Amino acid sequence: MDVRVAIIGAGPSAFYGAAALLASKDHSVKVDMFDRLAAPFGLVRYGVAPDHPRIKSVTTLYEKTAADARFRFFGAVDFGRDLKLADLESAYDMILFCSGAQSDRSLGIPGEDLQGSMSATEFVAWYNGHPDYENLNPNLDIEGVVVVGVGNVAMDVARILAKSPQELATTDIADHALAALSKSRVKDIYVLGRRGPAQAKFTNPEIKEFGHLAVADPVVRAAELELDPQSAAECETDRLMKQNVEILASYIDRGQGSKQRRVHFRFLVSPVEITGRGKVEQVKIEQNKLEAGNAVGTGEFETVQAGMVLRSVGYKGVPLADVPFDGKKAIIPNAGGRVTKTAGGEVVPGLYVAGWAKRGPTGVIGTNKKDAEETVALMLQDVGKRKSASGADVAKLLQQRGVKFVNWQDWKKIDAAEIEKGNAQNRPRVKLVGIDEMRAVL
Ligand code: NAP
Question: How far is the CA of 377 from the centre of ligand 1 (A)?
């Protein structure tokens, strides 16, 4: 049977979903993919750290999917503004939401709104050339930075801040970020884990990288690496957890760090207040103890001098116009990928979800493959249950509305221009940031 599918979002789950749909042997599926931004690849382009190019090479797979004649890309199309749910429901048999988690969680502590306090996700988007954050202008004329949280995003921002301009200059980091980071006066980066080292969410390669930086040393406190009996027992059965603790322990020998920068990994501490005269100057932190695996404050405090706070405590989904949203979990409510009206509620025919919008912001890029395939399996089971009313071509509708979308051929021209600019500088690419810059190439 012929099936017309619209996918909202062009990140990893969108491309894995498209690949699985186009691979169907039972049905002839056509996929139109829409993204608010002109460039595809979502978190691979705007989230993955610029100094981790290998992770980005996954886009070669996505390119293969995009080369299928039954695939079309519509970049620079805002769902909710340029296209409403009703437009898509009328033109497509099925709609798959792969909109990710575009916001972040807050700490809920006093001073969080001071200048210099921001989410790691904003900082990441800034150095990766996301057009919405081009003008973030973080002040790096400071010596101390506090990063709250010990997940892989915290590792990314701490590492980018710790690297020398030479280490960053061969990456595809945004030019504005390279210029700003080259002038950075940052000396001490404090990464705060509210629980112990065994509970850290970062993975082994990420924490290991801090042992090999050109101008920064990792610093740990032996006392904070001591494990309580429960964590010690967990380490015996969890090899990756044990390795994290061992890598951290190997940093004890580094002393206080002799290089120009230091990355302090602190554990069993929580920020309780950010203070300063109109901007971040100090962060008050409380020491914690572990009780049944949870962090509990001890009432003992200390103050860290810092001009910037990056909260890296997780991404958060945002609602899409007219699409059900579970505010508690910050996801689109669903049953295995079929969108439901409410959490645990009735299924909405024709609507599906995959990736972070479905399960929340967890897992690595590849996790989205299995996730999207699970949703697509249900979509293929549901073929024929709902047919589009008009089957109209959305390309025409967008043209009538004066929406200047970017198609795949356009993107390939932008891509080629970025790569060509990069070749001249021994970099994988030089990113074009704003839509006007991209349109100039076209
Ligand atoms: P994450 O892995 O969930 O880590 C969040 C961190 O924030 C945890 O350490 C958590 O501690 C802490 N936290 C949460 N609320 C807090 C609070 N109120 N106060 C203090 N700390 C708090 O999230 P993420 O780092 O944003 O990463 C998202 C996903 O992307 C993860 O699956 C990650 O592995 C993936 N990712 C992978 C890579 C890579 O492969 N290189 C790079 C970037 C991101 P608790 O554990 O105590 O809650």
Answer: 29
The model scores a pTM over 0.85? yes
The CATH number of the structural domain formed by 2-102+315-406 is 3.40.50.720
Q: Is the CB of 142 under 6 A from ligand 1?
A: no
Mean pLDDT score across all residues of the chain: 97
The model's pLDDT over 374-433, given as tens digits with 9 standing for 90+, comes to 999 999 999 999 988 888 999 999 999 999 999 999 999 999 999 999 999 999 999 999
The reply to whether ligand 1 has any atom less than 6 angstroms from the CB of 206 is: yes
CATH for 107-311, options being 3.40.50.2300, 3.50.50.60, 3.10.129.10, 1.10.10.60? 3.50.50.60
- In the chain, where the domains are located: 2-102+315-406, 107-311
Write down the residue that tokens 């062009």 correspond to.
Answer: 10
pLDDT at 256 over 90: no
For residue range 287-334, list pLDDT tens digits in order. 999 999 999 999 999 999 999 999 999 999 999 999 999 999 999 999
E strands, 122-220, are: 144-148, 188-192, 216-220
Burial 167-203 (b: 16+ CB within 10 A, else e): bbeebbbbbbbbebbeebebebbbbbbbbbbbbbbbe
